[in-house]
Amino acid sequence: MIRQSISSNFGVAADGAAMETQVRFVDAKTRLVLVRVPREFCNMIRCSLTMLTHNVTNNTTSSSSRRPTLVASVLSVNGSARTAKLATIARIQKEFQIPIQKELPNPTTESLLLQELQSLIVTIQNID
Question: Could you read off the pLDDT of 48-60 as tens digits, one per residue?
């Protein structure tokens, strides 16, 4: 989907950028994606991600049945893989703090959330 957005926004000139874009991490629960992009294509990819909106049609032809199901926004641009990992980990930790603070701390729920958080952090740290 990212490559389609790059191609539709920049045409043939962006084929190199589309081929060198790598999705390194995806998590549906936190709705985060870590994308690796060469520096020279950073602005092009950032623009494509910002304009990326995927619509799904519900078997009818009216435009009122279309609803955005994916809206991408760039949270951080980092110069190295290490700083990108640190930014992703910080964002995930923030996402996990909200459910823990919202609900009365149930030891079982909190323990499960912390285990899931630790698992995601290990996964991110192991990205090469």
Answer: 888 776 654 444 4
